[in-house]
Design goal:
Layout: E1 2-16, E2 19-31, E3 51-55, H1 65-74, H2 82-99, H3 104-111, E4 123-125, E5 127-130, H4 135-148, E6 152-156, H5 162-175, E7 180-184, H6 191-203, E8 208-210, H7 218-223, E9 230-233, H8 236-239, H9 242-247, E10 253-256, H10 258-261, H11 264-276, E11 280-283, H12 290-301, E12 328-329, E13 332-334
Parallel strand pairs: 5-6, 6-7, 7-8, 8-9, 9-10, 10-11
Antiparallel strand pairs: 1-2, 2-3, 4-13, 12-13
Helix pairs in contact: 1-2, 2-3, 3-12, 4-5, 5-6, 11-12
The structure holds 2-succinylbenzoate (OSB) and magnesium ion.
């Protein structure tokens, strides 16, 4: 296994309940073919890697960069360091798919937790992400997204007082009468505020509100369901398994970030658990580099009939690891031809 550290600046900081995200630091993970792993890595330095992964920790959702590096150096990271495990798991899955001459999503669909006769999708619908701003700015950004072809838009809330956020939700709905709208509070509200905001979101025909309460408040999340708008969980999945969240009846939608969950395999298992419990799943990123975004796209493509996903985050980065082989077009991302993550498109990274 070979590691290469990187740092990617964002075009504009993204405000979250854990503070602004300004840059994403992580590691490219290159693995060799399975049989070579016991050999001396030096022989492989000049040869392309068999598989490519990415470990891009985001404190609040995953381990720190130092803990990520230590886990990768240890060789076999487990789910206590999800970003490190993601990097290795994705690289192994990519190597496996490339060896089988298949797209990663086809491999995941065939070997994953969903019925193997359901083929992977060729494209995944995605939502636009609208950050904090005034009601007028929110309306403009939402209108722009719809004009670009997005059928689903996610509005970040929780940074302003509830009355102003309510005006923002209304402005978004007025700007996009027909779009599927979601809001993401990143755990910012108390139960009373969350109840009132969910009622407003229901009146405005929002599909779901992501993390209206802090991650730990599973019983509060459960009590918010059934108000005419869905409850989504994101941060709760960093401290609780999908099964725990579902057993607590705390969610209508699981927001699955493969980087935070420890890998494509674990994200797909969580999607299956959601469906089995009568809930749904959307796959998103932690503002990852192109390798992990592609990994998340393949995960989403392997979820039968997946709803719009939060994968359109590449445009938030001012720089990337390589040109994006899966740009957003008409509100969807096409899965690149294989084998693996993107066939020859990422050749320079192997
Ligand atoms: O889901 C999306 O639309 C984009 C991803 C996103 O919002 C996000 C990105 C980085 C960290 C946290 C989050 C979040 O969903 O809260
Ligand atoms: Mg979220």
């Amino acid at each position: 296994m070979r590691l290469e550290q990187f740092s990617l600046r964002l075009t504009d900081p993204l405000e979250t309940a854990n503070g602004p995200i300004e840059a994403r630091e992580g590691f490219l993970v290159r693995v060799n073919a399975e049989k070579d792993d016991t050999d001396d890595d030096r022989d492989d330095r000049d040869r392309p890697a068999a598989g490519l992964g990415e470990a891009t920790p985001l404190p609040g959702w995953t381990e720190s960069i130092d803990d990520c590096r230590a886990a990768l150096d240890g060789g076999t990271p487990d789910a206590t360091t999800p970003a490190a495990r993601h990097g290795v798991s994705l690289a192994r899955a990519d190597a496996d798919a490339r060896a089988a001459d298949e797209r990663l999503c086809d491999r995941l669909a065939a070997e994953g937790p969903f019925d193997s006769d359901s083929a992977a999708a060729d494209a995944v619908p995605v939502n636009a992400t609208v950050g904090d701003g005034t009601p007028a700015e929110t309306a403009t950004a939402t209108r722009d997204a719809v004009e670009e072809g997005f059928d689903a838009v996610k509005i970040k809330v929780g940074a302003r007082d509830a009355a102003e956020d309510e005006r923002r939700l209304r402005a978004a709905r007025d700007a996009a009468p027909d779009a599927e709208l979601r809001a993401d509070a990143n755990g910012a509200w108390d139960r009373e505020t969350a109840g009132a905001m969910l009622d407003s979101a229901a009146d405005l025909g929002f599909a779901y509100v992501e993390q209206p309460l802090p991650a730990e408040d599973l019983s509060g999340l459960a009590s918010l369901r059934g108000r005419g708008v869905g409850v989504g969980v994101d941060e709760s999945l960093a401290s609780h398994s999908a099964r725990e969240v579902l057993a607590a009846d705390a969610a209508d939608v699981l927001v699955l970030k493969p980087m935070a969950l420890g890998g494509p395999d674990r994200a797909l298992a969580s999607a299956r658990a959601a469906r089995d419990a009568g809930a749904d799943a959307a796959v998103t990123t932690t503002l990852d580099g192109v390798v992990a975004r592609l990994g998340a796209l393949h995960v989403a493509a392997a979820v039968p009939g997946v709803r719009a996903c939060g994968l359109a985050t590449g445009s938030l980065l001012a720089e990337d690891l390589a040109p994006d082989p899966a740009p957003v077009r008409d509100g969807a991302m096409a899965v690149p031809d294989g084998p693996g993550l993107a066939g020859d498109s990422l050749a320079s990274l192997y």
